[in-house]
Amino acid sequence: MRTFYIVWFGQLVSSLGSALTSFAVGLWLFTEGGSVTAFALNNVFYLVPWALLSPVAGAYVDRYNRRKIMLIADSVQALASLFIALFIFADGLQIWHVYIAVALSSAAGAFQGPAWSASIPLIVPKSQLGRASGMGNIGSSVGRLIAPAAAGVLILVIGLGGIVLIDFVTFLVAVTALLFVHIPDPPREDKAEDEEQSNVFQDFLFGIRYLYVRRGLFLLVVVGSLRNLFQNMATVLTVPMMLTFTNEAVVGTVFSIAMSGMLIGTLLITAWGGPQRRVPWVAGVLIVQGLAIAVIGWQPTIAYVIGGGFVMFFSFAFLSALLPPIRQTKVALDVQGRVTATMIFLAVILEPLGHAIVGPLADNFFEPWMAAGGALSSSFGLLLGVGPGRGMGLIFVICGLIVSGLGLFTILHPRIRRLEIELPDVIPDDPLDEVEVQAVTA
Predict the structure, then answer these.
(1) For residue range 53-75, what is the model confidence (pLDDT) as tens digits?
(2) pTM for this structure?
(3) 41: buried, middle or exposed (CB in 10 Å: 19+, 13-18, 0-12)?
(4) CA–CA distance, 406 with 402 (Å, rounded to integer)
(5) Which residues contact residue 440 at a Cβ distance below 8 angstroms, ignoring those fewer than 6 apart?
(6) How crowded is the C-beta side of 442, counted as CA atoms within 13 Å?
(7) 415 domain-assigned
(8) Rounded distance between C-alpha atoms, residue 174 and residue 176, angstroms
(9) Residue 345 burial (CB < 10 Å; 0-12/13-18/19+)?
(10) 66 occurs within a structural domain
(11) CATH assignment of the domain containing 149
């Protein structure tokens, strides 16, 4: 697993820099734009390119060298960070500059993500896929833990420009790590025929058909898409909701404490390696996560946000480690790029819609409804309280209960519940790079 460890370290460093920039830029957008909508649109500009380019990326990942794709993608993301830094130091940064850089970085990430995910089963033993998946989340876990507090301090010391430059350097670390490894190409049944079928729409339809005939896997992707929609509709409101009853410094500290749940969950499942049957665990984690999301919005107090946030991020760590091995063991190696990209597309396609509408919903409907004397003040207001932020709190509760309902659907639907039994594993026990070495030395 030497290759995995080297690439993983580069991605770990890069994700830490990205987490710093993401939080710092988010605070800047909310204070500069002065509305939930300006803050939420940042997520729209991130999600739309990622979703639209995923089918294209999948085709390239299956046909070309995955290491080279990752090199190019990481380099483009580094340039996106540099783009923001130049405008900051020229004292001319505007909101639309950030949106452009975010969209560019997202477009590159649409290629980088499937390339890395599809490479893992080539360089990691099947028995270690759960652990590798958990390790892959350590970077985001640590980043989410330290980024809020660290970004709050660093903005005062080196400013937003300094933070973005740190992000640029961390991308260079990821690129350097890739220069020192070899990632094998997957075996292809008919490479010539594969290259002829270069139509992006055909590739997307191939991914849809591949999933649809494996009905349990397809339904699990649909559940994931709906879960992403409702979880992100709620959590994108966390900072604006908290700023109605506390300040930026407290927000950063609360985020760091809550996000420690993701780090603890990641370390736990990495050490454990995960269960043999993952789908029942996915269902249970969804139920718990939904309830935690509802708790975050229940009352305008820091304790509820910390408690609900800790459990939500803890459960998110488990979901992030449980789901990839299901795909990696059930999808053929030579089509993992296309199928993974299709799954990503289906998983995130609804998120931009959610981010686009939740800001206006909060500003124009839920907040006025939950204000003193508002339409819902005498009903839901009796449970959640009334005043600034309570409309966003109600959105948290509604979205959380829907996520829990998705967990119940997952465990009750027979095709999803039995997919690990009905679908055979399609990868060897040993990673492909070790098989190649054994063949050469035999």
Answers:
(1) 887 888 788 888 889 999 999 99
(2) 0.73
(3) buried
(4) 6
(5) none
(6) 6
(7) yes
(8) 5
(9) buried
(10) yes
(11) 1.20.1250.20
Residue 439: inside a domain: no
> pLDDT digits over 281-305, tens only?
999 999 999 999 999 999 999 999 9
CA–CA dist 214, 217 (Å, integer): 6
Runs of H (alpha helix) within 186-247:
191-196, 200-212, 215-235, 238-242
Domain range spanning residue 75? 2-181+197-424
The residue written with tokens 């430059």 in the block is 165
Average pLDDT taken over every residue of the chain: 85
Give residue 413's identity as a one-letter amino acid code. H
Q: Is the dihedral of CA 289, 294, 300, 303 positive or negative?
A: negative
Helix (H, G, I), strand (E, B) or coil at 386: coil
Q: Are 275 and 330 in contact (CB under 8 A)?
A: no
Domain for residue 127, yes or no?
Answer: yes
Give the whole-angstrom CA distance, residue 119 versus residue 62: 10
Q: Residue 322, Cβ neighbours under 10 Å: how many?
A: 21
Number of compact structural domains in the chain:
1
